[in-house]
Amino acid sequence: xKIGVVxxxxxxxxxxxxxxxxxxxxxxxxxxxxxxxxxGVDAVVLPGGFSYGxxxxxxxxxxxxxxxxxxxxxAGKGMPVLGICNGFQILxxxxxxxxxxxxxxxxxxxxxxxxxxxxxxxTPWTSSYAEGAEITIVLKNGxxxxxxxxxxxxxxxxxxxxxxxxxDGNPNGSLRDIAGISNERGNVVGLMPHxxxxxxxxxxxxxxxxxxxxxxxxSIVESVFS
Length: 226
Known about the structure:
Layout: E1 2-7, H1 14-23, E2 27-32, E3 43-46, H2 66-76, E4 81-84, H3 86-93, E5 100-102, E6 110-118, E7 134-141, E8 145-147, H4 150-158, E9 162-166, E10 178-182, E11 188-191, H5 211-214, H6 218-225
Parallel strand pairs: 1-2, 1-3, 3-4, 4-11
Antiparallel strand pairs: 5-8, 6-7, 6-9, 9-10, 10-11
Subcellular location: Cytoplasm
Pfam family, one: GATase_5
Subunit structure: Part of the FGAM synthase complex composed of 1 PurL, 1 PurQ and 2 PurS subunits.
């Protein structure tokens, strides 16, 4: 499968994401923030970093990049989209996901290996995991606190749209320890930790993040497009 990885001005992890896509058995297709088409990809990854320097708000300017018009349209038709860290922020700014990401409650940048529990293994990005699986991947953010009103939080919980939850302490003040969520259809997932930094034993926190890239299969993609 062809998975596009978008580079915005200020992206840091697009090369890591491309490598993770390749290790996951797919073809990585570089996409530029100024592109007006998605080059025929089957899915899209919005990587981490500090797009447009995080001016205004994290992801607030990237949301208006030409490529995001294409991503928003494709996501509405069922294309799988994964936003990692800054990519999660962009998805919220684009209203593809509810809520917002705000400054960590302790006002410090956090960088550590983070344990998570996979709460929803039914998305195109998490189907390689068992429901309730506990994994360790890298977390690095300064504005990673997920917030939403109570009604939205209750809806996310009730509809099974919390994809991953922090274990062993909340690293950034995210409400209800939420580390990742999905849209109603399940094809769009935002995740604050970085699975692309945990795909090889040689470096990082091991290979627990690889499942986010091996989960995509033609049958999975076909099911969310139907």
